[in-house]
Amino acid sequence: MPTAAPERRSTRGFLSGVTGVLVTAFVFATMTLSGLATAQPAAADDSTATSVKASDYDKDAANSPFPELELTVSQTRGLISQGIEVGWTGGKESTPPSSQTGGENFLQFAQCWGDDPANPGHPDRTTCQYGAFVSPGATRDGNRAPGSVTPEDEQYSTPDNGSLDPGYTAIPFKSANGETIAAVVDNKRVPGVNVNTNAYFTQYTSNEIPWAGSGADGTGSTKFEVQTVVQAQGLGCGSRVTAADGSVSGASCWLVAIPRGTSDGGEASITASGLNSDVWKHHVAVKLDFRPVGINCEIGAAERQIAGSELIATAVGSWQPSLCAAPGGDVYTIITGTESDALATANFATDTSALALTSLPYSGEGTDNLVYAPIGLTAVSVAFAIDRFPKQDGTVPDEVLDKARLPFESMKLTPRLIAKLLTTSYRDSLPNDADRTHLGHKKGDEYVPNPRNLLFDPDFLAINDAEWAQQAIAGVGISDMLIPQGRSDVATMLWRYVMADADARAFLEGNPDPWGMVVNKYSSTNGTINPTGTGLSLPRDSFPKADPTEVAARDDGQTAINLVTWRPYTNNFDSSGYLTLRGDAQALGSWDAFGNPPRFSKVTRSLPGSQAVISVTDSSAAEKYQLVTASLKTPSGSFVAPTTDSIAAAGAAMTASAAQPQVLGLDLGSPAVQAASSAYPLSMPVYAAANPSLSDADMRASYASFIRFASTTGQNPGEQIGDLPAGYAPLPSAWRDQAAVAANVLENGLPPAAAPGSAPASEPLANGTPRSTTSAAGAAPAAPVAQAAPAAGETNPTASGEVAGALAGAQTPADPDVAGLAATLPASLLAGALSAAAVLIIPRLPRRA
Question: Are residues 395 and 374 located together in one domain of the fold?
């Protein structure tokens, strides 16, 4: 129990609470009079998409496999480790590769770092990351047909000495750090050198695309992973380059497309390297400009920690260089993790408390002492990379067959389908040799198994385009979703979305869907069905892999295969998106008895043309990696994809949490959401939260500066440093106003509205995080004397006059949309003054025994 006297505690807690009510009531009243503005319009489109024509780039385009090729790259400036989309026209209908040939009429893509000194405006082929998959037509080396070696390749070739010792050509790799991997030197083979798999890239790390096909109309598209020096040291892209004037930029690189026709010189098909000069000469390339890797902050800048929600991490990465480059700017180190833990630490303030990042309010023991500032509006995304593989049974139309290996670009999902994916209810989500009889139902005397994956489910096929039903796509990556381990607000919101739907709830309770599919019993919410005797409690803040089924260990040493071994968790939501970009379903490989130690091998990622993976990620990661995302069913019955407009529409439909009026969220059962047919149902706000009773005034001021930047300048959409990245909707004006007042309250050190009966300082939290040495019951030392609220143009130069707030006022559809914000500035200043006065008054209350 708290050590403070109950009566004194009650008095001080009561008056502190009254102060908070007066401040928030005043601000709320002012907002009601001035009206709540809608979201600010997005900045003008500053897209850096670039197009290039073969006829303009290739000096010998007339003899190219695709003379009319035109390539379009979605982004070429301000690049980081991300994905970009590459589209093209002017190709020819492609033939897929086989074990003997690379295919016909396709493109290859690679990233290169160096310029060709003999051909200005073109990349140097020896600097390309290419050859790692050692597939036909996609290696750096190989034997050459007699007479097929060009003069340009002679320096990389050995002599042709007949059929027993044919000529061999190996294009070396020159790394950005000066090392060269060469298998031929002075026209002689170098023993033991492999130019395809080396210290700089392997099949597990390379971003090359050996085959990208075109449809019957000659058009096509693919996602390409752009790598920086962090992922590919041999390329060095984005390495810091300091100019004579002291400015810093990132080292540029190239994206190269290599057209491949029907055969190579001296060969009947495509089998030779795309780097051989007779093939390479028809390449088409686009320059890629990168942000400099690393943060150039002033020496001696203070380092501040912010912790919690991963949803805002991409934006923080964009904001950080601008924040620390400002005069007196601090370095903000983001530690992503469980939001509830970050809130608990921030709520019971200590001198080392990080600024908490959250989408949901504090729900732990004791009073919520936090002030919440909205800094982001984003969403959870279900992303996928699934390439067409039509049935070959004679029932599929030619126009569908012509799209073989091309990616699907749309998908619809309902809460029930997401429930199936999250509960490992499809057969392929369990190990092949495991007992899967509980994934099915009896129909009379006949046992009917559940579908093997999402794409065989009549529930899915009933709401999606007919073309999906004409596919024969297998693979464990579409039997469930890539999901991260651990607790998160994202998990809570995704389960809330599922549980808000009557059909999904019924399925989880054990009722079959209209086609007879049943839930995996170990994930049923019905304790009479769940073999554990206890129903799965939902919603929850994690994604449990509840099925204990496993394949037993073998006598030859192979270890058991359980659900986590079979379908491992990812590190976080960003890595789920990254793996989707790469087509890596995290599939379990074969047992390597000769490994050290013996272990299961890792299956190489699936290349474009054969990808099949689904993941739960966030909209900023989905945009960063240029992923295709599913449209989700809304409570109104429409299907909506996560876009800036649909996320903004969801923000307008959000209402205040019953537990904490400062925090908004989507109540999927509310009339506002039921009527919002264009709102994306998994949209989420992100708040920066801190306890204003932090004794470190410099820390409070730094956190306030972060909030002010994030909620103003940081809301300008764009691709450059300091901008709001894609995947976020700009904050509505009322949210910015709330952030401004929250920053003022935090900087001024307004004491928390303490409540009687809080737990003592020495008692640990339930999750193991120790409490602060400051009691929430009023035993905290007196807060320092606060200064007057910062005036616009001084402490908050970026606010542009928008410093009104709504610490308790939640926007609802009934709120008026009027242009009365001129009255907001004096309101926030007066609110800050009341806060400051409260700080002066409360510590001077007479103490009672």
Answer: no
